[in-house]
Amino acid sequence: GGGGGGEEAGQKLKSMDVDKLENGGDKPALKYHGWRAMPFIIGNETFEKLGTLGTSANLLVYLTQVFHMRSVDAATLLNGLNGTTSLAPIIGAFLSDAYLGRYLALAIASVASLIGMFLLTMTAAADGLHPAECGVGETCSKATSGQFAVLFMSFAFLVLGSAGIRPCSMPFGADQFDPHTESGKRGINSFFNWYYFTFTSAMLVSATVIIYVQSNVSWPIGLGIPTALMLLACVLFFMGTRLYVRVTPEGSPFTSIVQVFAAAARKRSLKQPKDPKQDLFDPPHTSAIVTKLAHTDQFRCLDKAAIVSGPDDVRAGGAAPSNPWRLCSVQQVEEVKCLIRIVPVWSTGIIYYVAVVQQSTYVVLSALQSDRHLGRSFQIPAASFTVFAMLAQTLWIPIYDRLLVPRLRRVTGKDEGLTLLQRQGIGIALSTVAMVMSAVVEDRRRHIALTQPTLGTTITGGAISAMSSLWMVPQLMVLGLSEAFNLISQIEFYYKEIPEHMRSVAGALAFCNLALGNYLSGFLVTIVHRTTGAGSNWLAQDLNKGRLDLFYWMIAGIGIFNIIYFMICAKWYRFKGAAAN
Fold it and tell me: Which domains does the chain show, CATH number per domain?
């Protein structure tokens, strides 16, 4: 018993020492409130997600029905908006790490999101901020430049909000627990579970209740509810201010990355070192947080950044370079190599997301032109069909974790059952299968619309097919299953393979994938529309006159290429710390 008590006391002392070091030597140790701060942080998370997701989930329908935009223009605009919203966290992560700190970044971003939602609600509530209503068959007036200006201003504030909230919210919650104690570590793990639970719950509520109000009650009320929830999120966040641990910005890891490239470029004329262990600058590793990386033989050109070209390169004592832009350590070089090795695998995610983003654009348009009745009176809102993908994802995770992983362990001999790269590959394959299913179902929907009596006309002028929109559920379930495999393993892959002090980059990389996937989807929509527009336009305003099924077949073909490309990247990839020189 005495030995255990001494060990526990030693752990506490070590924890206090680390806290003092983290706070700058003699400053008082951080006071962690852990779960006491969680009602404010998780409450803020829940209402913020309900607000932002409730605002964005039905935007395609809002743009086509209220702002009278052509479906192809609305889809392109939405792809661009989603892409920018997902790309902005990279800038947010940099500013947060280097200058602002996570608390200030979240505070600014939360207020920006609230302003953006308020402006968007006003475009629906104020008659002068949107085009006049028009009935079926009437010529609809287009939005004025002033109306579009207010709409785009609301989008700009929403992008600013996502830049701070997306990269900072999860790490800020984890900051509230002491990472040097067992209870703190358990708290961090539990927080991540709660974070994912609130995220999926908010998505489900947004895709059902809020979208139903927007589509069937009124747009001002449907957009006003998320705005009110975002106001509540801001109030909760600021109420907890006195309890929060605020980690001081330590400078961005991007600086270290740039230094390696700059030093390697300056020394490009030097010969490669014969013995890296002897010839490269490799001072003693002092960080208790970042894992020491051994030298690897990939990307040898970067090794030149660590070559000591003269006695003036190193300070007295030999532990630090005199100029970090001329000499870098082996550790710095290997951290950059880790990032470069990830890039090919990461790039497969861009193509993967082209399939995923269709559920928020053309799947919604297909649902609008099919029979959405459930029973005699209830009609499923078109944008709510994304809930089936979320449902598959939510149901699959516990089934995989509790039932399949134990069995797969016995087969593969690996603790995780399937490796992270295997799971990503399965996700890419399933997304391609989902696109094939989408093409077959869309062909059937269009055939029924052209050969059988229709059920009326949409506001945009397209005839409604008698085919039940529930036929689209299987393809969405498969797409949700592909996300459960690919998206989660992708984030875990970045988290484990990127050096510990660069983990803010890990979350940003996943959002960057989503951003570029949206941009690529928008680019494909534009190219297809311009190429086929003169004749049989695949992406016609009325889907019954177009060939959306051929667009889906094209994405499936790109998906097959992506599977082959991913297999090559996965075979080439070398995991962090493996096969060192």
Answer: 28-240 (1.20.1250.20), 341-572 (1.20.1250.20)
